[in-house]
Amino acid sequence: MTLLDPVWTSLLYLAAAVFFILALRGLSSPRTARRGNLIGAFGALLAVVTVFLSARLDNIPWIIGAIAVGTAVAAPVARRVQMTQMPQLVALFNGVGGGAAALVALLELSHTADPWVRLAIVFTLLVGAVSFAGSGVTFAKLQELMTTRPIVFPGLPVVMAAVLLAAVGTAVAVVLTGSLALAVLLMVLGLAAGALLVLPVGGADVPIVISLLNAFTGLAVAASGVVLGNVLLVVAGTLVGASGTILTRAMAAAMGRSVAGILFGAFKGGSTAGSTAVSERPVRSSSAEDVAVLLGYAQRVIIVPGYGLAVAQGQHTAAELALALEARGIEVDFAIHPVAGRMPGHMNVLLAEANVPYESLKEMGEINSEFRMADVALVVGANDVVNPAAKTSSGSPIYGMPILEVADARQVIFLKRSMRPGFAGIENELLYEPQTSLLFGDAKDSLAKVLGAVKAL
Amino acid sequence: MDGMSLLTVTVLAVFVGFEVVSKVSSTLHTPLMSGANAIHGIILVGAIIVAGQAADPWVLAVALLAVVLATANLVGGFVVTDRMLHMFRARKDVVRQEATGKEEAK
C-alpha cells in the first residue's frame, strides 16, 4: 500500500483540528449545536482514516477488531442511557479517555531517550491515571455503587501529600532513567491520587469535579501529542483542556467558591451547627389540591427544578404541568441554577428531553429579578440552590453561593421527599417562612397529583 | 515537528479554546462538556500508532486495550452528545412536532 505523503497527512490533520474548533464553536448555541457535534465526529473519522493511510502499521486486523469492540460496547450504551444517568456516563467516557492516554504514554517510553519527551510522558501518565481513577470514583458515586457523601478520614491530607510527593519523585526518576517499572509505579501513584482527590468531594460538588477531570484528560491527550509528535492530538487536547478549565471556573463561580476550596474540602461533611436546633419548628404542609389552586389562579409561575426531579424522573410530568398551566393563560418559566443537578447544565438536558423549549429555561441572572413579579415559585426537588443561608449566615458552607431568589415570590411551594436537608446538609430557613407551603412526597408523584388537580379546576 | 513549533501551536490552541468556549450559555454546559469529552477521544489516533508499531505481544495487548478505551470515549462521546442535542428544541419546533404528532394520531 502506498502511504500518504507527509504534507497531505499534515493537511488532513489540520483539517480535522479545524473541524474540532468548529464543533466547539457550534456547541455555543442551541441552533448550531447538533451540526457542530456532527462536524466534530466527521473530523474524528477523518483523523482516524488519515492515520491508517499515513503510517506503516502492523497488526491492522487486531486494531480494527479493537475499534469494533470499543464501538460495540460504547455505542449501544450511549444510545440507550437514560438522561438522568448522563453525568455518570460522561464521567465514564472521560475516564477511559484518560486511561487510554496514560497507556499510550507508557508504551512510548521505550522509544525515546529525549528528556523533554520523557517529561511529556510522565505528565501524560500521571494526569491520565488521575483522570481515570477520579472518573471511576465519580462514576461509582453517581451510580450509587458507593456512598454519595464525602469520604474523609483522619490524615487524608497527609496521605495525599505523601502520594503526590512520591509521584513527583518517581516522575523525576523516570525522566532520568527511562525505567519502565518506575513508570508503572508512577501510574499506580496517579491512580491513587485520582481516587484520593475525588473521595472527599460531596454530591453537590460532583458537577465541578467532572468538568475538572474532563480538562485533565484534555491536557493528558495534549501531552501525548507532544510525545508522539502529533499536532492534531496537541490541538484537540489543548482545546478540551481550555474549555474544561473555563467550564470548571464558571461552575465554581456559580457556587461562589474557588476550585481549590471544593477539592480541598470546604464541604467536609455533615450538617452545620444549629441545624438540629431549628428543625423542630412547624412548617405549613399542604395538599395537592391546595397547590393546584395556588398555581391555577396565578398569573406568573416560576418552576425551580433540582436534583430531586432527576432522581424521581419527574421531568415529563413537570413539562406537562407547565403546559397545563400555560393552557390556562399563565406565564410559566423554569429557573435553572448553574449547579442544579449533578452535571453542569443537567436540568437543561432533562427538561429538553421532556420537550420543554429552551426559551423557557432561564438562567439565574436572567430570572432572579423576575421572582418579585411571580405569584408562585414552585421548587421541585431543589434545596441548596434556593437556600437563603448562602446570603445570610456567614458560617454556612454554602455562604457566598449565588442563589435563586425564590423568597421574593408571593408564594413559595416546595415539593420535597422529606425535611432532610440537601446534599450540603444545611437547614433551609425558607421552609419556615409564612409564604412557604410544602407538599411532601416523591417529586414525580406529587407533580402528577398537582397536574390532575390543576386539570380538574 | 520541533519543540518550538509545538509550543507555538499549543499556546495558540489555548487561546482558541478560551475564545470559542467562553461565551457558551449555561443551557448548553452539559452538551459542551460531553462534546469536548468526545473530542479528547481522538487519543485513538495515538493508540492506533502505538498498536501499529508493537512487535512484542504484551505491548500489542496493552496498546489494543488503549484502542478499545479510546474508541469507547470517541464513539460513545459523539453519540451521546448527538442524542442530547437532538432534544434541545426551540419553541416553534416543539409546536410543529406536536402538530404532526396529533395528525399522526388521527
Features:
heterodimer; A: 457 residues; alpha/beta; six-stranded parallel sheet; 18 helices; B: 106 residues; mainly alpha; disordered C terminus
Compile the SSE list and pairings.
The complex is a heterodimer of chains A (457) and B (106).
Chain A lengths: L5 H21 L6 H22 L5 H21 L5 H23 L6 H28 L13 H22 L2 H19 L7 H23 L2 H24 L4 H5 L11 H4 L9 H9 L3 E6 L1 H5 L3 H13 L3 E6 L9 H8 L7 E3 H4 L8 E5 L8 H4 L18 E6 L19 E5 L2 H14 L1
Parallel strand pairs in A: 1-2, 1-4, 2-3, 4-5, 5-6
Chain B lengths: L2 H19 L7 H11 L3 H11 L3 H31 L3 H15 L1
Helix pairs in contact in B: 2-4, 3-4
Short description:
The complex is a heterodimer of chains A (457) and B (106). Chain A is α/β, with parallel strands linked by helices.
* Count of DSSP-assigned helices of chain B: 5
Rounded to the nearest angstrom, the distance between the terminal CA atoms of chain B is: 64 Å
Report on the biggest sheet of chain B.
Answer: none
In oligomeric terms, what are we looking at?
heterodimer
Please list the strands of the largest sheet of chain A in the order they lie side by side.
Answer: 3-2-1-4-5-6
The major pleated sheet of chain A works out as: 6 strands, parallel
The assigned structural class of chain B equals mainly alpha
Find the biggest chain interface.
A-B, 114 and 82 residues
Q: DSSP helix count of chain A?
A: 18
Number of strands of chain B: 0
Low-pLDDT ranges of chain A = 266-278
Shape of chain B, please?
A: flat
Number of strands of chain A: 6
